Amino acid sequence: MMVPRHRPRLLPLILPMLLLPALSACGGAKGPPPLSPAALAAVGDHPGAPREALARAIDTLFDNPSLGQTRAVVLLHNGRIVAERYAPGYSQNTPLLGWSMSKSVTGVLVGLLVSDGRLRLDESAPVPNWQRPGDPRGEITLRQLLQMRSGLAHVETDTPARDADTVRMLFLDGRDDMAAYAEAQPLEALPGTRWRYSTATGVILADLAARSLTESADPQVRQQVIGDYLRTRLFAPLGMRSAVAEFDAAGTMEGGSMIHATARDWARFGEFLRNGGMVGGARIVPSDWIRFMTAPNPTNPAYGAQLWLNRPSANGEEELFPDRAPASLFAAIGHMGQYVIVSPQQHLTLVRLGQTPEDKRAALRAKLGDIVELYARH
Hints:
alpha+beta
């Protein structure tokens, strides 16, 4: 069969088309797009981990909408800020609500009062209404309150949300005297036998702190004594100049949810915990107290005393990443994705503040794990 003479002239046109798949494959092998100047500028020259990988991991927190809105990230390694970034409209001077990270501050406050001899860990919690003859709540100890195993019938979340004790206490019928609301709830389990997370417990602890410092029921007096004690014994020594707690109309600190501080000051709090209760060589709270806060409690190995631990949870719902970081890692964790993650073994403190709805929290947690995993487990 004769081949038309014009067929060879098609080769110059056909060959580029045949090469397109190969060229496309080569283009795809170039890797991810270059980082933005803002992403690279957020990370120091010697962060203790691969700089570009760290910058990219932090950039994902800000640029991936599936993770919610990140407002601030501060990362310290060996006590030095190695990465820091803020969303537009936020800065190192912007106080941000810690939500339930406030519980961890309240836990340290109680530790200071125990070390002062004003409260006792294994005696009946001195709530007046629980001390009446025959009231089984008189068996609840301070230790059990701190470890979230008081047995009180506190409902943290519910559907509809307004039926939850947390919402009722903070915003509805309990808002003017939150401690009275929280302390009025009955037992639904024997004290010490069951773990249940409870913001109302943080308010009870704050009420006990105020009662240990003053006998006055005057709201202004109660607010003043706790405010002064926190400032002089904790916030000032740690350099947390921005930290502010909210109080209810009865003068009780909203110790389960309402403490504000800048990202750097939340990082200072994390570093204080990482160093076992010390700041600049000065001991602020006994080291035994930090060990107590970071030790697994008998009813949930993933929770200590007002701190979350990097261990498998009793109910299978993980708050951290036990398969990706040392078991010694722990964290203060708040509603909508507030984190102060502390890894003493890796010499790390990581703060993330923002707004992430519950259905996106697992994805956010995984990305925070990516950052921690960049650092070797020493």
